[in-house]
Design brief:
The protein is an alpha/beta fold. It is built from ten helices and 13 strands. Helix 4 packs across helix 5. It is globular and about 75 Å long. The model has no long low-confidence stretch (mean pLDDT about 95). Belongs to the group II decarboxylase family. It catalyses: L-glutamate + H(+) = 4-aminobutanoate + CO2. It is an enzyme of class 4 (lyase).
Length: about 450
């Protein structure tokens, strides 16, 4: 008779799964002890990088102990089940109304919004509302609805390319350049016509962290309307900046203070300071979200509108967002975001002093900045080599090409999030200085075969 080896008495690393190669592509036949299965998975994820040292991602990697406890208390809640979890549904409503007020909606009582899995879903909902309203208006006028287009910067996040692909909308990319580092309204009239459903403005370009001047884009669209009669709305993709600008640049006019801005999206799990899995989208007035896209869900004898691509989804992150709003308030969010920006500007100033580099921006918008090698500095190495040298020390600092007309330009970028302290930043800056000096001392070129971007947009 064979004797089972996965008992509590058997040493951990002598049990099946630990003493053998764990299953990869087929569910194993036999069960294992909970702590054995835990140990296997725990040990495998040690091969992942340290999320706190991942300066490629915008996604939050730190919350306090009370938030973690709340997460444990609520990870079984399903956001769609508003009848079973009516208070979670009410808290979702509280959160997007708080955001509507933060973003200067004329009246939060007449706005409408929803939580989403992330800002990518939120962007797609904003795009769908644009498309449906455009279709309705065209049909009412007896016009063709087969060729919608959406105008945006060539530096948009890939979610907008996905939206256009998935929902049959022509993307019209306005190229960025050395002279126009963002979509700033310059030359916009070349891309607008009667089939344009809207324009996307980004508060924090993924490639560099720079704000697109939404007020200037709105002015350009005002001029286009005066000339052509075309009334084109704006969706603000505020994945990061919508949770930075209200606190650090409150006088910057980018939000619902501009009448042309119909909707704004953000990532709760970026500078909203919540763990991954949360986005938000708010429309300045309910009229800008077509009724036929909204489903009514009954709970507690009433009705709550729901508009989402996903059905079942976690409710815990919504509760974490409410916790963060209550925990921090305006003053706390300002302090956290200012600390991140202080670290970003400390790092960008230090990198600017290294002779090899030239800043693209310095982190004065969102706490994100990028730099490039100075022209003619060296033929022996490039930013991908620096990326790899830093990775060996645990730091993930991505290098990648810029979009379209700037595709020959490679930059390196740092995203500063809550949890990257000034002390850690000093360690990072020393690592960049050390590795740059190492590369500058090379007497022959480094190999370039197999190099690839460290981040995908």
């Amino acid at each position: 008779m064979s004797e089972r080896l996965d008992s509590d008495e058997t040493p951990n690393f002598s049990r099946p799964g630990e003493a053998t190669v764990a299953a990869r592509h087929r569910i194993p036949q036999a069960e294992s002890l909970p702590d054995t299965a835990y140990q296997i998975v725990h040990d495998e994820i040690m091969l992942d990088g340290n999320s706190r040292l991942n300066l490629a991602t915008f996604v939050g990697t730190w919350m306090d102990d009370e938030a973690k406890k709340l997460y444990e208390d609520s990870f079984d809640k399903n956001m769609i089940d508003k009848d079973e979890y009516p208070q979670t549904a009410a808290i979702e409503d509280n959160c997007w109304r708080m955001l509507a007020n933060l973003w200067n909606a004329p009246d939060a009582a007449t706005a409408i919004g929803t939580s989403t899995i992330g800002s990518s879903e939120a962007c797609m909902l904003g795009g769908l509302a644009f498309k449906r309203r455009w279709q309705q208006a065209r049909r009412a006028a007896g016009k063709d609805t087969s060729s919608p287009n959406l105008v945006m910067s060539s530096a948009v996040q890939v979610c907008w390319e996905k939206f256009c692909n998935y929902f049959d909308v022509e993307p019209r990319f306005v190229p960025i350049s050395e002279e126009h580092k963002t979509l700033d309204g310059h030359g916009l009239e070349q891309y607008i016509d009667e089939n344009t459903i809207g324009v996307v403005a980004i508060m924090g370009v993924t490639y560099t962290g720079m704000y697109e001047p939404v007020d200037e884009i709105a002015k350009a669209l005002d001029a286009i309307q005066a000339k052509t009669g075309l009334d084109i709305p704006i969706h603000v993709d505020g994945a990061s900046g919508a949770m930075i600008a209200p606190f650090l640049q409150p006088d910057t006019v980018w939000d619902f203070r501009l009448e042309r801005v119909h909707s704004i999206s953000t990532s709760g799990h970026k500078y909203g300071l919540v763990y991954p899995g949360l986005g938000w989208v708010v429309w300045r007035e309910a009229q800008w979200l077509p009724d036929d896209l909204v489903f009514k869900v009954s709970y507690l004898g009433g009705e709550m509108p729901t508009f989402a691509l996903n059905f079942s989804r976690p409710g815990a992150q919504v509760l974490l967002q409410y916790y963060a709003f209550l925990r921090l308030g305006i003053d706390g969010y300002t302090a956290v975001q200012q600390a991140s920006q202080d670290v970003a500007k400390f790092l960008s100033a230090g990198i600017a002093k290294i002779g090899a580099f030239e800043l693209w921006n310095d982190g004065s918008d969102i706490p994100v900045f990028a730099w490039r090698l100075k022209a003619g500095h060296t033929k022996n190495w490039n930013l991908y080599h620096l990326q790899d040298r830093l990775r060996m020390k645990g730091w993930l600092v991505p290098a990648y090409p810029m979009p379209d007309d700037l595709a020959d330009l490679t930059v390196q970028r740092i995203v500063v999030r809550n949890g990257l302290s000034m002390d850690l930043a000093e360690d990072l800056l020393e690592a960049i200085q050390t590795e740059t000096a190492y590369l500058d001392a090379l007497e022959s070129p480094m190999p370039v075969e197999g190099q690839h971007p460290g981040f995908h947009h």
